[in-house]
Amino acid sequence: MKKINAIVTGGASGLGEATVREITKNGGNAAIFDFQEERGSILSKELGDNCIFLKTDVTSEESINNSLSSTLSKFKFINLLVNCAGIGIANKVIGKEQLHDSKIFQKVISVNLLGTFNVLKLTVEKMLENEPDEDSFRGVVINTASIAAFDGQIGQAAYSASKGGIVSLTLPLAREFAKYGIRVCTIAPGLFETPMMSGLPEKAYQNLIDSTLFPKRLGKPNEFANLVLSIFENNMLNGEVIRLDGSLRMSPK
């Protein structure tokens, strides 16, 4: 496997944490861009010199640029970006008490979609400086959408819109970056064992498992991480959105 020097946004927990662990386990380096200072610091200390934590606000270009500078100072180059940072807020548009607050909608779009775009454009600018290999490869961007981009449930208007935007970014970016030897793919996970799922009531949790064709369980974060490494290694994977969901199709609610 090619040497990985990665940035993982949202890398302090959930799918991002699993990705950081898998990268470092395979001899790569990972910079965690996250707002969770305590979790990120603990993880980077655990993983040692192959990992650094940088408190980063993905909605701020200044914050991202500062973290990029620190990453390059330590690892010299970046050839993988994995955008996992995101938030999920459930609200009906026509609620019992009030209409969907547009500020909440804007916040979800700002973190999930604009945050993804901010980090990728600034990171790809740095990837351009990488020496291409024999296949003209310079780097990979892997964004994280969700099956909610396709099967959004009632209450997921903001979340689905943000993840649908990430899906729609994939092909135009892959086309634009192709001449630089930089690939772009998106993973659209189904339901995974992450902190976002931990607060669900037992009945709701079981209903979700029952909706999955095979395997009859939630996804494991390391299965997401393994797909990240597969995409990195396979140069023919480009401009693609990959559902990772056990063939789950979510019901309206």
Note down, in words, how this protein is organized:
This protein has about 250 residues and is of the alpha/beta class. The chain has helices at about 15-25, 35-45, 60-75, 100-125, 150, 155-175, 200-210, 220-235, and strands at about 5-10, 30-35, 50-55, 80-85, 140-145, 180-190, 240-245. A 7-stranded parallel sheet has the order 3-2-1-4-5-6-7, with helices on both faces. Helix 1 crosses helix 8 (about 220-235), helix 3 (about 60-75) runs parallel beside helix 4 and helix 4 runs parallel beside helix 6 (about 155-175). The chain is globular and about 55 Å long.
Q: What would the keywords be for this entry?
A:
253 residues; seven-stranded parallel β-sheet; 7 strands; 15% strand
Give a nutshell description of this structure.
With 253 residues, this protein is α/β, with parallel strands linked by helices. The chain has helices at 14-25, 37-47, 61-75, 102-127, 148-151, 157-177, 202-211, 221-233; strands at 5-9, 29-34, 51-55, 80-83, 139-144, 182-189, 241-244.
- End-to-end CA span: 42 Å
Low-confidence stretches: none
The assembly state of the depicted protein chains is: single chain
Shape: globular
Largest sheet: 7 strands, parallel
Class based on secondary structure composition and strand pairing? alpha/beta
Strand order of the largest sheet: 3-2-1-4-5-6-7
Beta content: 15-25%
Number of helices: 8
Give the helix/strand layout.
Blueprint: E1 5-9, H1 14-25, E2 29-34, H2 37-47, E3 51-55, H3 61-75, E4 80-83, H4 102-127, E5 139-144, H5 148-151, H6 157-177, E6 182-189, H7 202-211, H8 221-233, E7 241-244
Parallel strand pairs: 1-2, 1-4, 2-3, 4-5, 5-6, 6-7
